[in-house]
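Input record, target 12 of the design panel.
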């Protein structure tokens, strides 16, 4: 089992910055990849950024503005968000995929943190 706890959300003006943190606990050695998703009201949850074995990927809408990083020693993944736009407003969820067996992976989610960008 893996537990994820996010922090760092809040209210910011357009053009501002926020940094989200997600601390993993439990069976952290089984974690294969981690990432951030977001869900705006009335919309589906979407991948924002992910990191696996040092390789990162980003949604087109955040490329050049957001940076994901992972500190394995602290079991923490970060999302640095710069040049925020009102359309970035959403609940942001930390995600981890962990290996249970060679045939099965488990997905874990944090409780979510609200990010609100005012225009």
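The sequence produced for target 12 reads:
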């Amino acid at each position: 089992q893996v537990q994820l706890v996010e922090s760092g959300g809040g209210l910011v003006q357009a053009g501002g910055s926020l940094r989200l943190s997600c601390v993993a606990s439990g069976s952290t050695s089984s974690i294969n990849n981690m990432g951030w998703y977001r869900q705006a009201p009335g919309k589906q949850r979407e991948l924002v950024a992910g990191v696996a074995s040092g390789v990162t990927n980003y949604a087109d809408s955040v490329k050049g503005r957001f940076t994901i990083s992972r500190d394995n020693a602290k079991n923490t993944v970060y999302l640095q968000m710069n040049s925020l736009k009102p359309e970035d407003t959403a609940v942001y969820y930390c995600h981890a995929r962990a290996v249970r067996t060679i045939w099965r992976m488990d997905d874990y989610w944090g409780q979510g943190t609200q990010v609100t960008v005012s225009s």
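The mean pLDDT is 96.
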